[in-house]
Amino acid sequence: MLGGMLAIAAFRAAPALAAGTADVSVSGSWSQTIGATALVSGPGSDLTASYVGGPSDIVLAVTINGNHSWNVNVRRVDSLWNQNLNLYVQRTSDGTAGSGQVSGGTAYQLVTASDQLFFSGTKSQSGFAVQVKLDGVSLQVPPADYSTTLTFTVVAL
After folding, report:
1. Given Cys at both, which of 4, 55, 73, 108 links 115, Cβ 3.0 to 4.6 Å?
2. The domain containing residue 13 runs over which residues?
């Protein structure tokens, strides 16, 4: 993958707010350029296999009517992706505003093309910081500008 770039865009997917429903807002993105400086030991060596974004490159907020519980799901929607690359997310904060509770999502979780539970909570809350990790980078991955979108969906329970 020498000479390639990876771009991750964050996106929200949720219905309009009505009684017992929730909405998620998402800000931020992450990208990583991988070039000759990523060679582990210079020419003839492989690339660094893992790259980690900043602890708050992506920030989520959940709005819900009432005191309901909710789940945030995550999935990956690929524009151009290589099957050897693995993308992970983890929640790095408990939020910065709101009186609800939050649980889960504090360990790196592999993101696939299918919706999967990321973390859960109660009441409206904002400021959930999310960190992205890329793994599986090597010279065996052809150089390209790989790109995927993280889609976060909130489900009222």
Report:
1. 73
2. 4-156
